[in-house]
Protein backbone atom coordinates (compact mmCIF):
# COMPACT_ATOMS: atom_id res chain seq x y z
CA UNK A 1 0.00 0.00 0.00
CA UNK A 2 1.53 3.40 -0.92
CA UNK A 3 2.45 5.72 1.95
CA UNK A 4 0.37 8.87 2.16
CA UNK A 5 2.25 11.99 3.18
CA UNK A 6 0.61 14.81 5.15
CA UNK A 7 -1.77 16.70 2.92
CA UNK A 8 -1.91 13.77 0.45
CA UNK A 9 1.08 15.05 -1.50
CA UNK A 10 4.80 14.08 -1.32
CA UNK A 11 6.99 16.45 0.61
CA UNK A 12 9.13 17.39 -2.40
CA UNK A 13 5.97 18.47 -4.28
CA UNK A 14 4.94 20.58 -1.32
CA UNK A 15 8.41 22.11 -1.18
CA UNK A 16 8.29 22.88 -4.91
CA UNK A 17 4.88 24.50 -4.63
CA UNK A 18 5.91 26.54 -1.56
CA UNK A 19 9.04 27.76 -3.30
CA UNK A 20 11.39 26.04 -0.85
CA UNK A 21 14.65 24.46 -2.00
CA UNK A 22 14.92 20.82 -1.00
CA UNK A 23 18.55 19.68 -1.42
CA UNK A 24 17.62 15.98 -1.50
CA UNK A 25 15.34 16.59 -4.47
CA UNK A 26 18.11 18.57 -6.15
CA UNK A 27 20.49 15.65 -5.64
CA UNK A 28 18.03 13.21 -7.23
CA UNK A 29 17.80 15.51 -10.24
CA UNK A 30 21.48 15.03 -11.11
CA UNK A 31 21.71 12.90 -14.31
CA UNK A 32 24.68 10.78 -13.28
CA UNK A 33 24.58 8.63 -16.45
CA UNK A 34 24.76 11.65 -18.69
CA UNK A 35 27.40 13.24 -16.52
CA UNK A 36 29.48 10.04 -16.55
CA UNK A 37 29.16 9.64 -20.30
CA UNK A 38 30.43 13.16 -20.87
CA UNK A 39 33.48 12.53 -18.75
CA UNK A 40 34.18 9.17 -20.40
CA UNK A 41 34.17 10.74 -23.84
CA UNK A 42 36.80 13.22 -22.72
CA UNK A 43 39.11 11.05 -20.59
CA UNK A 44 40.06 7.36 -20.39
CA UNK A 45 37.56 5.01 -18.77
CA UNK A 46 39.50 4.46 -15.53
CA UNK A 47 40.21 8.13 -15.07
CA UNK A 48 36.55 8.97 -15.72
CA UNK A 49 35.41 6.51 -13.08
CA UNK A 50 37.69 8.09 -10.51
CA UNK A 51 36.59 11.58 -11.49
CA UNK A 52 32.91 10.67 -11.34
CA UNK A 53 33.30 9.08 -7.92
CA UNK A 54 35.15 12.07 -6.53
CA UNK A 55 32.71 14.54 -8.05
CA UNK A 56 29.64 12.72 -6.74
CA UNK A 57 31.19 12.38 -3.28
CA UNK A 58 31.86 16.12 -3.25
CA UNK A 59 28.30 16.85 -4.42
CA UNK A 60 26.81 14.65 -1.71
CA UNK A 61 28.94 16.37 0.94
CA UNK A 62 27.87 19.83 -0.21
CA UNK A 63 24.19 18.86 -0.31
CA UNK A 64 24.26 17.23 3.13
CA UNK A 65 26.05 20.23 4.63
CA UNK A 66 23.57 22.63 3.07
CA UNK A 67 20.64 20.53 4.23
CA UNK A 68 21.95 20.40 7.80
CA UNK A 69 22.70 24.11 7.80
CA UNK A 70 19.14 25.00 6.87
CA UNK A 71 17.70 22.85 9.65
CA UNK A 72 15.57 20.91 7.11
CA UNK A 73 13.74 24.09 6.19
CA UNK A 74 13.12 25.10 9.83
CA UNK A 75 14.17 28.48 11.17
CA UNK A 76 16.87 27.58 13.69
CA UNK A 77 16.46 30.92 15.44
CA UNK A 78 13.02 29.85 16.60
CA UNK A 79 14.30 26.76 18.41
CA UNK A 80 14.63 26.91 22.17
CA UNK A 81 12.66 27.98 25.18
CA UNK A 82 11.27 31.54 25.23
CA UNK A 83 13.00 34.05 27.44
CA UNK A 84 11.35 34.75 30.74
CA UNK A 85 11.73 37.44 33.33
CA UNK A 86 13.60 36.02 36.30
CA UNK A 87 12.33 36.90 39.79
CA UNK A 88 13.89 36.27 43.16
CA UNK A 89 11.95 33.83 45.38
CA UNK A 90 10.15 35.26 48.39
CA UNK A 91 12.45 35.29 51.44
CA UNK A 92 11.91 32.12 53.45
CA UNK A 93 12.19 33.87 56.81
CA UNK A 94 9.64 36.49 55.78
CA UNK A 95 6.94 34.07 54.68
CA UNK A 96 7.64 31.33 57.24
CA UNK A 97 4.41 30.20 58.86
CA UNK A 98 2.26 31.99 56.27
CA UNK A 99 0.38 30.90 53.17
CA UNK A 100 0.22 32.54 49.76
CA UNK A 101 -2.91 34.55 49.08
CA UNK A 102 -5.30 33.41 46.38
CA UNK A 103 -4.11 35.18 43.19
CA UNK A 104 -7.71 35.46 42.00
CA UNK A 105 -8.45 37.81 44.90
CA UNK A 106 -5.99 40.42 43.59
CA UNK A 107 -5.29 41.99 40.23
CA UNK A 108 -1.97 42.85 38.65
CA UNK A 109 -1.74 45.62 41.23
CA UNK A 110 -2.12 43.98 44.64
CA UNK A 111 -4.04 46.48 46.77
CA UNK A 112 -4.94 45.18 50.22
CA UNK A 113 -5.58 46.17 53.81
CA UNK A 114 -4.84 44.57 57.13
CA UNK A 115 -7.83 42.70 58.61
CA UNK A 116 -8.56 45.69 60.87
CA UNK A 117 -8.39 48.10 57.93
CA UNK A 118 -5.86 50.31 59.73
CA UNK A 119 -3.02 49.54 57.29
CA UNK A 120 -3.51 49.94 53.54
CA UNK A 121 -0.89 48.69 51.08
CA UNK A 122 -0.25 48.50 47.35
CA UNK A 123 2.30 46.31 45.54
CA UNK A 124 2.91 47.35 41.95
CA UNK A 125 5.79 47.68 39.49
CA UNK A 126 8.45 46.28 41.82
CA UNK A 127 7.48 48.57 44.68
CA UNK A 128 5.36 48.28 47.83
CA UNK A 129 3.79 51.12 49.79
CA UNK A 130 1.87 50.92 53.06
CA UNK A 131 0.01 53.75 54.82
CA UNK A 132 -1.00 53.50 58.47
CA UNK A 133 -4.15 55.50 59.20
CA UNK A 134 -4.05 55.57 63.01
CA UNK A 135 -0.47 55.46 64.28
CA UNK A 136 1.50 56.38 67.36
CA UNK A 137 4.71 57.35 65.61
CA UNK A 138 6.13 60.09 63.40
CA UNK A 139 8.31 59.16 60.45
CA UNK A 140 11.81 60.59 60.43
CA UNK A 141 13.27 62.44 57.48
CA UNK A 142 9.95 63.53 55.99
CA UNK A 143 10.35 67.28 56.69
CA UNK A 144 7.20 67.60 58.75
CA UNK A 145 4.99 65.64 56.37
CA UNK A 146 1.84 64.62 58.24
CA UNK A 147 0.85 61.65 56.08
CA UNK A 148 3.95 59.65 55.07
CA UNK A 149 3.86 56.21 53.56
CA UNK A 150 6.40 53.44 54.01
CA UNK A 151 7.92 52.43 50.67
CA UNK A 152 10.34 49.76 49.47
CA UNK A 153 11.49 48.70 46.01
CA UNK A 154 13.02 49.96 42.81
CA UNK A 155 16.26 51.85 43.42
CA UNK A 156 15.42 53.71 46.61
CA UNK A 157 15.67 51.02 49.28
CA UNK A 158 13.25 51.28 52.22
CA UNK A 159 12.09 54.76 53.19
CA UNK A 160 9.33 56.91 54.60
CA UNK A 161 8.00 59.12 51.83
CA UNK A 162 5.36 61.78 51.28
CA UNK A 163 5.68 61.43 47.51
CA UNK A 164 3.28 59.43 45.42
CA UNK A 165 -0.31 58.42 45.99
CA UNK A 166 -1.36 56.71 49.25
CA UNK A 167 -2.50 53.11 49.01
CA UNK A 168 -6.27 52.72 48.51
CA UNK A 169 -8.23 51.93 51.66
CA UNK A 170 -10.80 49.77 49.88
CA UNK A 171 -8.46 46.93 48.92
CA UNK A 172 -9.08 43.27 49.71
CA UNK A 173 -8.29 42.33 53.30
CA UNK A 174 -5.13 40.22 53.52
CA UNK A 175 -5.73 37.75 56.33
CA UNK A 176 -3.27 37.20 59.12
CA UNK A 177 -0.38 34.87 58.28
CA UNK A 178 -1.01 35.35 54.56
CA UNK A 179 1.41 36.84 52.04
CA UNK A 180 1.15 38.31 48.56
CA UNK A 181 3.98 38.62 46.03
CA UNK A 182 4.37 40.76 42.93
CA UNK A 183 7.70 40.42 41.16
CA UNK A 184 10.48 40.56 43.74
CA UNK A 185 8.36 42.27 46.41
CA UNK A 186 6.46 40.29 49.05
CA UNK A 187 4.20 41.58 51.82
CA UNK A 188 2.98 39.42 54.69
CA UNK A 189 0.15 40.21 57.10
CA UNK A 190 0.65 39.37 60.77
CA UNK A 191 -1.22 40.21 63.96
CA UNK A 192 1.73 42.46 64.77
CA UNK A 193 1.38 44.42 61.52
CA UNK A 194 2.44 44.21 57.87
CA UNK A 195 5.98 43.60 56.66
CA UNK A 196 7.13 44.08 53.06
CA UNK A 197 10.50 43.22 51.54
CA UNK A 198 12.24 43.50 48.18
CA UNK A 199 13.97 40.13 47.78
CA UNK A 200 16.31 41.51 45.12
CA UNK A 201 17.86 44.10 47.45
CA UNK A 202 17.01 42.70 50.88
CA UNK A 203 15.50 46.04 51.96
CA UNK A 204 12.13 46.22 53.62
CA UNK A 205 9.91 47.73 56.28
CA UNK A 206 7.41 46.73 58.93
CA UNK A 207 4.35 48.84 59.67
CA UNK A 208 2.10 48.77 62.73
CA UNK A 209 0.00 51.11 64.82
CA UNK A 210 2.60 51.36 67.59
CA UNK A 211 5.81 51.57 65.55
CA UNK A 212 7.54 51.17 62.20
CA UNK A 213 10.93 49.89 61.09
CA UNK A 214 13.06 50.38 57.99
CA UNK A 215 15.91 48.05 57.06
Strand content: 15-25%
- Mean pLDDT metric: 75
How far is the first residue's CA from the last residue's CA? 76 Å
Report the total helices.
Answer: 5
Strand order of the largest sheet: 1-8-9-10-11-12
| Helix proportion range | 25-40%
For the record, the count of structural domains works out to 2
- What is the number of beta strands? 12
Characterise the protein shown here.
With 215 residues, the chain is an alpha+beta fold. The protein has 2 domains: 6-78, no CATH class; 92-214, no CATH class. Helix content is 25%, strand content 25%. The chain has 5 helices and 12 strands. It has helices spanning 11-18, 23-28, 32-42, 45-69, 92-95, and strands at 99-100, 110-113, 119-124, 127-132, 149-153, 158-161, 172-173, 178-182, 185-190, 193-198, 204-207, 212-214. The protein is globular and about 40 Å long. The relative contact order is 0.13. Residues 1-6 and 42-85 have low confidence and may be disordered.
Amino acid sequence: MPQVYPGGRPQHDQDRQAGRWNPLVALRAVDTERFTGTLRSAVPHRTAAVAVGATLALAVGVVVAAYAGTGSGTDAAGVGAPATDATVPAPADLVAGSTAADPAAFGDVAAFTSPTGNIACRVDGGEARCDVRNRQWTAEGTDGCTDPGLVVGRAGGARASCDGVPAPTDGTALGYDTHVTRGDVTCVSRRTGVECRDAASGHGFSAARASYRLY
